[in-house]
Amino acid sequence: MTDTIEPPAEDPAEAAAEEPPEPVVLPPLELHEPLPGVVDDPDMLAAVLDQLRAGTGPVAIDAERASGYRYSQRAYLIQLRREGAGTSLIDPVAFDDLRALDEVLAPTEWILHAATQDLPSLAEVGLRPRTLFDTELAGRLLNLPRVGLAALVQEVFGMSLAKEHSAADWSTRPLPEPWLLYAALDVEPLVGLRDELERRLDEAGKLEWAQEEFSALLSFTGPPPRAEPWRRTSGIHKVRGARRLALVRSLWEARDAIARERDITPGRVLNDAVIVAIARANPASRQELRDLDVMRSRGARRYLDTWDTAVTQAREVLERDLPSAASSDADGPPPARAWPDRNPEAAARLAAYRTALTAIAERHDLPSENLLTPEIVRRLAWDDPAGGDQDAVAEFLTSRGARPWQVALTAAALAAARSSR
């Protein structure tokens, strides 16, 4: 008879210790007042203006776009919240402009989260802040691990904020009520967030730095236009040869014209993968173009005549007008990985600068990219302003857009790093 070996009795305390902890369920952020209706006529707007005039303190502002659906970056909903005025949801499409609203908001501080995302679309309808507070940027200067709005709401208030409608088509009319609730909740916490983050910035000795950053945002109008935006086509690195690059350019420009006219995102007209596939195949005729596997979908064939014309035009481009392998957008230094061969002195300076900046960022509990942008550091290392002393470095940093607080923290250390190589 074989003895049966019984497993040792399990210690209840050990078993409990090995069980994964229960996930923490945070209470959801909720509106303090009932969900307001959408403001879409002059009388409703006039009432909102009166409410805002009667309110006190800064105004929280957000805008919803339809980036994945529309060509333009216009705002399709603008949310505002102010103490004493409550929350308002304004449909900017219903008005020629919102300059009357801008006049009411002119004396107030605006609170935005990730201001660079919303400022251009707000300016398009006549709304421009005179002073602002960016909660995302404040979180970055505090070196918080996550600075999305939902993360900050959890960090500061211990509440959850759902973001399930962030990529919705906000050009939809009428807007569904769940979307409107989502939009209202985006401005609900901003005043409280602003106050707490300002307190933390002040406590950390970073409030003046933040104020310089916020002031710089007032002149932000959007990223500078690219000289050759077609080079951003995803997968373009697979395309070899100037003639095929001309084909990418021609197809991209044809697609862009259609998307602009129809106000739909270009990828919904013809996605980048199809452009790259056509360019690599380099079809010699309309029939060859039509027979490509990537052209079998009805969407790709909808504008077959346009794509055929684009292919023909690319084929007829003169040799001298063919695009080069390098982008004319790249007016700065080459990629840093090429520096050891092309400019070893610049490579050594860049390494020294990065080491110095990492030490400063750690000492002041800052992300390195907020201390100085990587682009400024690369340009400093590559251009090596005459003299390379502290004054020359400070002048160069200022000319490239560095704020006074950044120059004060870094100029001397960068000059020392250069001289000590």
From TrEMBL:
Skewed-composition ranges (Acidic residues): 8-21
* Entries under Pfam families matching the protein: DNA_pol_A_exo1, DNA_pol_A_exoN, HRDC
Q: Which domain of life is it from?
A: Bacteria
Per the record, which residues fall in region Disordered? Answer: 1-25, 322-341
InterPro entries membership:
3'-5'_exonuclease_dom, Exo_C, HRDC-like_sf, HRDC_dom, HRDC_dom_sf, RNase_D-like, RNaseH-like_sf, RNaseH_sf
Domain HRDC residue range list: 241-321
**PANTHER family per the record?**
RIBONUCLEASE D
Protein name, UniProt field: HRDC domain-containing protein
